[in-house]
């Protein structure tokens, strides 16, 4: 009887640790490019949720969210989770979010989407090459991994296209660095804990 309760406590502790570590790293990262919005995202089942956000107009303030859903086909973070999913997970995601009509409106063809997912796996981050449905924005997402090399979260970044284009490579680099730092911190904390 105690086994499931202990597993639940461990899951809650891991979640708290992810949010605590990520908050500090996102605040520090945002200070290096305050023209951007930064966020931490997680996937639960077939849905991506934004958990933490630091916005342009509120630098240094971490907004914690519980139920902020992120659409699949238009956001870098959701596409990143899809790119890193197993074939079984991808099948469930596509069943819950069919390509017709939502994906086709954005991507045109399934092949174009699959090319983006393959490129994401190859380069290690997601940079969708389609117009943003919410307006002129540059979006990127980088993976956060568990000690077992499973993708557990994403660091996302957004810049308005009214910002100089020179900031786009900086945002990509900062998101990747933040994701790697969160990954390393979580893995170091895991090693420091007794079994």
Quick gist of this model?
50% of the residues lie in helices and 22% in strands. With 195 residues, the chain is of the alpha+beta class.
Question: Can you walk through the features of this model?
Answer:
The chain is an alpha+beta fold and 195 residues long. The chain has one domain: Beta-Lactamase. Helix content is 50%, strand content 22%. The chain is built from six helices and five strands, in the order H-E-E-E-H-H-H-H-E-E-H. A five-stranded antiparallel sheet has the order 3-2-1-5-4, sandwiched between helices. Helix 1 packs antiparallel against helix 6 and helix 2 packs across helix 5. The two termini are 20 Å apart. About 5% of the residues have low confidence.
- Domain unit count: 1
Structural class: alpha+beta
According to CATH, what is the class? Alpha Beta
- From the 3D structure, determine the CATH topology: Beta-Lactamase
Number of helices: 6
């Amino acid at each position: 009887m105690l086994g499931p309760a202990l597993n639940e406590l461990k899951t809650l502790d891991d979640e708290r640790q992810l949010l605590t570590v990520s908050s500090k790293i996102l605040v520090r990262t945002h200070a290096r490019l305050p023209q951007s919005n930064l966020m931490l995202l997680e996937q639960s089942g077939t849905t991506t949720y934004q958990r933490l956000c630091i916005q342009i107009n509120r630098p240094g303030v971490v907004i914690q969210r519980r139920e902020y859903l992120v659409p699949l086909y238009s956001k870098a973070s959701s596409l990143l989770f899809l790119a890193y999913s197993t074939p079984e997970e991808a099948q469930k995601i596509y069943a819950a979010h069919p390509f017709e009509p939502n994906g086709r409106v954005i991507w045109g063809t399934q092949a174009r989407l699959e090319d983006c997912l393959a490129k994401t796996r190859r380069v290690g981050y997601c940079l969708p090459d389609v117009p943003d449905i919410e307006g002129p924005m540059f979006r990127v997402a980088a993976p956060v991994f568990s000690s077992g090399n499973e993708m557990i979260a994403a660091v996302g970044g957004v810049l308005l296209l009214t910002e100089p284009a020179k900031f786009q490579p900086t945002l990509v680099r900062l998101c990747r660095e933040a994701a790697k730092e969160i990954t390393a911190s979580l893995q170091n904390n895991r090693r420091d804990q007794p079994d």
